[in-house]
Write a structure and sequence with these properties.
alpha+beta; 11 helices; 39 strands
Length: about 600
């Protein structure tokens, strides 16, 4: 039997004065096998999730590298200011894109610290709905689009069945209307494992492809799970890699036992061959994660760590092209530390045995992670003080922390491969034991805002007449330093307004977040307005102690701004900066006219 779901072929898109043929994407079932069809030809998803959205200057390098790895499609989680350039570059290199459209989570969880109410927040749902429709209308004719990916692990991060039902009905409304706008691309929605299947089947018939995030051997059972539920729809594994931390049971001193580099490589290579490509209703896989980082997930799952190749990189190439690694990652045969509790500050020996197939010169370093506290602290990997050599052996100095500590050894070769192994130790420190708020420690100078890049706090705390307020962190009209500054525009002739840059985003003190900025002596920023008669109260700290997780200090000053840039400074030496979760706060009001305030170079130092 042959079933074909067809999508209408649209008009050609005029882009940069050239006509680009839009790809017609269909789903086809022949006998028992499902396939993507792109312009009538079978398309097997050999994908990766893409983590370099903001590094636009190197898009060409990334997509050229992806082609060499055998990748034919990438997946994103959301759209943003760089989506058009991303799609253009993907098309240039003949790579398709599953375009992600983000849906907010119902509670802080695996993916995010956000919290959204699908039962009550109708205004918020309309905002998401309108944004999603605009995304589809804007990019539906782009030839790089393979499919729409609506949401990621939302059911996993919703607490009650009533909320899940409300989200499901909202999702169906969105997906069914996307179909009316764009009949040329299938619609997918993504969930962890099979947590979405029953809800999708009952409430969201407009989904064409089920996106299932699965790590480790569970990928082998997804097809069977669909069969048990009598589901006759195709699926794509939207995230895949070695078994994740959440499924690991074994521990050393309270630290999850991370798979070895050899296990990480094998999971991708053998998993793709044995658990994914031979399933008749599986359209393919997006391997997690083509990205570079220096946080907790990076050694475990990323293609690059601190700019060096990891097993995931070479595993992707082997799975998709059959090619062996060009140069072997250093193999850490042994890495262990005595199983006892250590006092902070003490020096302890490590047992380390490393082999490199090419006998490259090796560079060794040690690092640690405390997988407790706020989300950003749980992710943070810090450097350890160490001494010694591969010949004479190494010792590490236990940092000033309390509790379980994950210790990493990094072994880098001259080919830019990096082998990583880890273990766990237990540490005692009487001072740190009583620390109230476990948040990441900032390195001074600590920029709350510097040229709009990698903001530690996000401008989501809107107050007062917020509907007349807009905030642009990439403003280029008026800039003190670099290429961008903050523009805070108020388009109303009366009333007051406020904006807070906070961490976590969209939170008013119910979730642990922020940074420890101890040691800072002053807080400063540059500011100006579009006239000489604008008054504003500017500083940091907003959340009061009636909340579970407040700011430990608040300080601000009232300023009469002028139309010239001026630096303002607040002394903070004697303040408790152990948890600053509102890194920048501004209040102002209008007296008969619209106004704009510009802010730049906000820093604790």
């Amino acid at each position: 039997m042959k079933i074909i779901i067809r999508f209408i072929f649209p008009l050609l898109l005029l882009c940069f004065c050239c006509f680009l043929a839009n790809a017609q994407v269909t789903l086809e079932k022949k006998d028992t096998t499902w396939s993507f069809m792109v312009n009538g030809k079978p398309f097997t998803v050999k994908g990766v999730t893409f983590g370099h959205d903001n590094d636009t200057a190197n898009y060409d390098l990334y997509f050229k590298d992806l082609k060499a790895l055998g990748v034919n499609t990438i997946r994103t989680w959301a759209t943003g200011e760089h989506t058009e350039k991303l799609l253009n570059t993907a098309e240039k290199h003949n790579i398709k894109v599953m375009v992600g459209i983000w849906m907010r989570h119902g509670r802080p969880g695996m993916e995010d610290d956000d919290s959204f109410d699908y039962l009550e927040d109708t205004e918020g749902m309309e905002t998401m709905y309108n944004h999603s429709i605009k995304v589809v209308e804007k990019y539906k004719n782009h030839p790089a689009v393979l499919a729409w990916g609506i949401g990621n692990e939302v059911y996993l991060n919703i607490a009650t069945d009533a909320e899940k039902e409300a989200y499901s009905k909202f999702l169906e409304r969105l997906c069914s209307n996307i179909k009316k706008i764009d009949q040329n691309h299938p619609i997918s929605s993504t969930e962890a494992w099979t947590f979405g299947l029953d809800w999708w089947e009952k409430y969201v018939p407009s989904i064409d492809v089920y996106g299932l995030n699965c790590y480790g051997a569970g990928a082998d059972f997804l097809s069977e799970e669909l069969s048990k539920r009598n589901i006759d729809k195709p699926y794509v594994i939207t995230e895949f890699n070695v078994t994740g931390e959440w499924d690991i049971k074994a521990e050393i001193n309270g630290v999850k036992v991370e798979p070895s580099d050899e296990e990480k490589y094998s999971a991708i290579v053998n998993g793709y061959q044995n658990w994914i490509q031979n399933k008749t209703n599986c359209l393919g896989v997006y391997i997690f994660h083509y990205s570079n980082g220096n946080e907790y997930a990076s050694p475990w799952l990323f293609t690059h760590h601190k700019g060096s190749y990891r097993p995931t990189y070479w595993g992707i190439r082997k799975a998709y092209t059959g090619k062996e690694p060009t140069n072997a990652i250093p193999s850490i045969k042994t890495f262990s530390i005595a199983n006892e509790t250590f006092k902070s500050g003490t020096w302890i020996p490590v047992n380390l045995d490393v082999i490199d197939a090419e006998n490259d010169d090796l560079e060794v370093s040690f690092h640690y992670n405390q997988h407790t506290g706020s989300r950003k602290r749980r992710k943070q990997i810090n450097e350890l003080t160490y001494r010694g050599s591969l010949v004479d052996g190494f010792e590490i100095q236990v940092p000033k922390v309390h509790g379980s500590l994950k210790i990493y050894v990094n072994v880098k070769d001259t080919f830019n491969n990096i082998g990583i192994a880890s273990t766990g130790i237990s540490v005692t420190d009487s001072e740190m034991k009583n620390k109230k708020y476990l948040v990441p420690k900032a390195t001074l100078p600590f920029y709350v805002y510097k040229d709009g890049d990698e903001l530690p706090y996000l401008p989501t705390g809107y107050m007062g007449n917020y509907k007349a307020l807009s905030v642009d962190v990439k403003n280029t009209e008026e800039v003190y330093a670099g290429e961008h500054a903050i523009k805070i525009a108020y388009k109303e002739r009366s009333g007051w307004y406020g904006i807070a840059f906070v961490d976590p985003k969209n939170d008013w003190g119910n979730t642990l977040g922020g940074y420890e900025i101890e040691g800072a002596k002053k807080f400063s920023f540059w500011a100006k307005a579009d006239s000489n008669s604008v008054y504003a109260t500017i500083g940091f700290g907003l959340i009061d102690k009636d909340k579970p997780f407040p700011d430990t200090a608040k300080k601000s000053k009232e300023i009469k701004l002028t139309d010239r840039w001026k630096k303002y400074t607040i002394k903070v030496k004697r303040l408790d900066l152990s948890c600053i979760r509102s890194g920048f706060v501004l209040f102002s009001s209008s007296s008969g006219f619209y106004q704009s305030i510009y802010i730049d170079e906000v820093v604790f130092e």
